[in-house]
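Researcher: Batch entry, complex prediction.
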Amino acid sequence: MNPANPLLETFRQSSYQLSNHGKRNVQVLKEAFEQIDGEVSSDMYGRGQIIEEFQEKMAAFLGKEQAVFFPSGTMAQQISMRIWCDEKNIHQVAYHPLSHLEIHEQDGLKKLHNIKTILLADKTRVIELEDIIKMKEDVACILLELPQREIGGQLPSFETLERISEYCAEQGIKLHLDGARLLEVLPYYQKTVTEVCALFDSVYMSFYKGIGGVAGAILAGEQGFIEQSKIWKTRHGGDLISLYPYIIPADYYFEKRSSKMYQYYEGAKELAALFNSCTGISTLPLVPVSNMFHVHFLQPLEQVKTILIEVQQQTGIGVSHYLKELDEESCSFEVNIGDQYENIPKELLFEAIKVLDENMNSI
Amino acid sequence: MNPANPLLETFRQSSYQLSNHGKRNVQVLKEAFEQIDGEVSSDMYGRGQIIEEFQEKMAAFLGKEQAVFFPSGTMAQQISMRIWCDEKNIHQVAYHPLSHLEIHEQDGLKKLHNIKTILLADKTRVIELEDIIKMKEDVACILLELPQREIGGQLPSFETLERISEYCAEQGIKLHLDGARLLEVLPYYQKTVTEVCALFDSVYMSFYKGIGGVAGAILAGEQGFIEQSKIWKTRHGGDLISLYPYIIPADYYFEKRSSKMYQYYEGAKELAALFNSCTGISTLPLVPVSNMFHVHFLQPLEQVKTILIEVQQQTGIGVSHYLKELDEESCSFEVNIGDQYENIPKELLFEAIKVLDENMNSI
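Model: Structure tokens for the complex:
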């Protein structure tokens, strides 16, 4: 075998994969639609039973007055920032330096909404109350991402969240939850989703991370906020004639997986411990606080790549399809525990970790 | 029967409907996916075979260098305007007073992109070359909608299009085609799609009007333009992890219906003539130039509603599910000929027109 990308290729040919729920293929949609009667009417530009019922269900689930379904979180969150900025007439918000809005959205918030951003905390850690207190600038809103994905999915303590929420309320600053992986953090906090959401003025949750749907997001908050968000959704070009191709899978996989977050969390802790037992490997965070973590290698990327290819070929365990260079001497990849993890025979998993450790030792 | 909306109710219960391809229900999606193998991989944030192949196919079809799939035309067209405005550093564009961007998008172009708009021609007719020549303001781009939907789907002559295109090129004004119903106008112009598109710098086409897909749009133009549009698509929140739920139906119904536009156009002319034979009824335009037209009644809405309910109940022909008040003395609805029209037994159609005419006469 001499493919262009042997790491990806050996990953694809592996019998088991550590992360996620399975392949992102058309079957994900087909399975969700299998039991849906063809006679069910499409939603029409944000109206109709299929979208309204799901929005009501999600509003109730999150403990908010109303909710609206969006094709993407990018759209939902920019719009949230805009509404809070317009309300306070301050076109400035604050968030983490590695927020999705700052690094993955081609500066949409700045280019479309003309909103300036204040970066809180440094890149290596989560935002603490002190970062907010010492902020000199006036902001309309602070966005907190739980868990902070780009640093391995770290979390502030729940007490910190409560104190931040209280402080923001006192200061008249709106608090928005980037809950792309909201359900994934509940087992660590040992809180209900409504207890977490109650600390925030507006909440976004994704349907294709831990839940594993096709795409789409929900935005929840008070009635006036949601009504405005629907107008902005039209402005963004997100008020599609039919969103049911995302809503039906969102609902289907929500029902299938929202109760499995504890299992994913336990799997993440178990797998992280196995990685941490290997020479030259550590996870971030050391003990996961959700279903995700990053695996860091204290070796150059090319050497680690050779090792992972070897492990994947020899054991049939797909460890990762990619590696990200951190610097010349280290690299990493991300793990997201989903349905696939529990299917891996434990002896095969231990074997893969053993081969990985041996190879790391023999560099 | 005493439903809340008897016009809608009798329409729904009718055996045949004049307009469209059929119900917008989940079956539209299921039919398109029936022959698609579940193992087919999803597109991933604008990449992957499923999206790239369709984009290449559409670029070639429209005769443009490149194309990009968008979840909505609203998004695709605002972005087109923004790119042309940024390129010329003139944040002003011109279009028809009843353009989709002006009346159906909650002012997204103005609120998100800070672009001013010049309204060309008056509301009752299409834009002519003279409207453009006498425009005093500098604009980066002119948007032409073919056909002009809100006035019954009227069209300028092809010669006018050629002259406008030539004039804009001379003046350094970009010309953009709002081709939501692009294929629908080809039979009237007796031109190929590439002949029409060659007159424009950028072209948008929809997949859920004449083609009858689930949602989605294509934007086509030169490479540099399309590359920029992809960045703006991310900024708008339109670069979804998976767009295949729209792409697969777009391709499926494109193959099924793109060659049927002549049939729809002939049907529209036939049906318009039937309406024009009735007392107090006329169509706009009098002779359709695409698959669409508006039906105008010179009677108050409430009286016409009673008549349409009667026709729908008595003949089983669904004429319209709604009426729009024009003024106290007149009202209208829109007809879009699709697959359903050919299924109507002609004697039943003539019977419906006869009942309609008799009822209009007896007011």
